[in-house]
Specification:
The protein is of the alpha/beta class. Helices cover about 30% and strands about 25% of the residues. Strands 4, 14, 15, 16, 17, 18, 19, 20 and 21 form a nine-stranded mixed beta sheet that branches. Helix 2 crosses helix 9, helix 6 packs parallel to helix 7 and helix 8 packs parallel to helix 9. Bound molecules: pyridoxal-5'-phosphate (PLP). The site of pyridoxal-5'-phosphate has 17 residues, from helix 10.
Length: about 425
């Protein structure tokens, strides 16, 4: 956890300024203790059930972190064949990986079958192809869209009626007809209603719809409730009450299992909940620029490294590592990318001076994994702090990385047509 003593910010007793000094900026830092705390919070809330966590690795997919989750007993949620391969390299057993693709080619699904992972299908035409190819020889899970409305940003919602995700619960009869025609084995039902579900009520509402549908599927082994747990971004943010959700959902899941006649496993696929708060993104202030309307703090990074503010309007708390007790002033914190590139408007920060190190909080989820080489910039290094020790888990990129796959053509060919 981030601590402030004697004007020094530390993580697991390591001064953040030292990490900035040693590894250079910009830099992503992850605190393993925070990930473990979140993992334990969730598993403890469902200790009365056969519960499994499938960490959604698109949030943060460094191999060192995947291996850590595996060591804690987690499985993996993946959305591309490349993520499946990363998971296998991190040592996950195929049966502990669930593949939940959307709009991928059928070949990609066949590759995942060949690797032996759990397949989650979210489209009737794909289900039909799957049945036609494998019949009952390879079971699959189906993703149901119960059309409950989670909170949060429209971009983050996947449960609405226009959503491209899942098979609508209104298409259940058609779904069942396909399953019967091809003698398919459905081993799981899945729902994932997008990010930022606030209260247990929304989950329970979705759960009831899934429980109702489940009566039609005799071969189930698990119900997967996806994710969407809300974490705090601002000081006064309301967050999902996990113990409360645990109590209520455990009760209704028990009732469901009694009805169903067998005890099934309950799965969750959190990404953000497990890693968001563990991540810190450090940048250096290059310039302070006073304009007629505002004071800009321009930093040595941009939406190429942390796109969430520009892409989702996400709010990230910012702290000034170099000057914690400075007199607060109002800044717009902007990046160096040559287009609108704003991290924060009108933010009160302890006085920011050129060269000061700023730190974005909640940078663990969808930070590094959504970064790019836009403006031909290098992606940052990543450091993991575990048991009081910092470890470099990804090197900063170099010009070699930018050039790696580029091929030039002979100028003679370019100018051949000019004669
Ligand atoms: C993205 C995703 C998740 C994780 O969502 P978070 O909001 O990061 O917890 C889980 N399941 C599926 C299928 C996803 O696509």
């Amino acid at each position: 956890m981030l601590e402030l003593h004697d004007n020094t910010y530390t993580l697991q007793h390591i001064p953040i300024a030292d990490l900035a000094e040693r590894y250079g900026l910009p830099l992503y830092i992850y605190d393993a203790d925070t990930m473990k705390r979140q993992y334990d919070n969730l598993t403890n809330a469902f200790s009365g059930l056969k519960m499994k966590v499938k960490y959604a690795c698109k949030a943060l997919n460094n191999l060192a972190i995947l291996s850590m989750f595996r060591a804690w007993g987690s499985g993996l949620d993946t959305v591309s064949i490349q993520e499946v391969e990363l998971g296998l390299r991190a040592g996950f057993a195929p049966q502990d990986i669930i593949f939940t693709p959307n709009c991928v080619s059928f070949e990609e699904i066949q590759q995942a079958v060949a690797l032996g992972v759990v397949i989650n299908i979210d489209n009737l035409s794909v289900l039909e192809k799957f049945g036609n190819t494998y019949s009952g020889s390879y079971p699959c899970c189906v993703r149901i869209n119960p059309h409950i409305l989670a909170g949060g940003n429209y971009h983050l919602q996947t449960g609405h009626i226009d959503s491209k995700f899942g098979i609508s619960v209104y298409q259940l009869r058609h779904l069942l007809r396909i399953v019967k025609t091809y003698s398919m084995k459905i081993n799981g039902l899945h729902m994932h209603s997008g990010s930022d579900i606030l209260d247990a009520g929304v989950f329970l509402q979705g759960a009831e719809i899934i429980f109702d549908a489940a009566k039609n599927f005799p071969d189930l082994q698990f119900i997967d409730f996806g994710s969407g747990f809300k974490v705090p971004y601002k000081d006064d943010d309301v967050v999902t009450d996990i113990p409360d959700l645990g109590r209520k959902l455990t009760e209704s899941f028990r009732e469901f299992c009694a009805d169903y006649g067998r005890e099934l496993e309950i799965w969750f696929e959190p990404g953000k909940y497990l890693v968001s708060e563990s991540g810190y993104f450090l940048v250096k202030t290059n310039v302070i620029k006073q304009t007629v309307s505002t004071v800009f703090a321009g930093v040595d990074s941009g939406q190429n490294h942390l796109i969430r503010p520009m892409f989702y309007d996400a709010y990230h708390r910012i702290i000034n590592i170099s000057n914690p007790s400075g007199t607060p002033r109002v800044y717009s914190v902007v990046g160096y990318i040559c287009e609108t590139d704003t991290f924060a408007w009108d933010r009160r920060l302890p006085e920011v001076r050129e060269e000061d190190t700023l730190c974005f909080l909640n940078a663990g989820a969808y930070g590094f994994t959504m970064s790019s080489n836009y403006n031909s910039r290098f992606r940052p290094a990543e450091v993991l702090i575990v048991n009081g020790q910092d470890h470099l888990i990804r090197k900063r990129e170099t010009m070699e990385d930018i050039l790696r796959n580029q091929l030039t053509i002979d100028e003679k060919i370019v100018f051949a047509g000019d004669k």
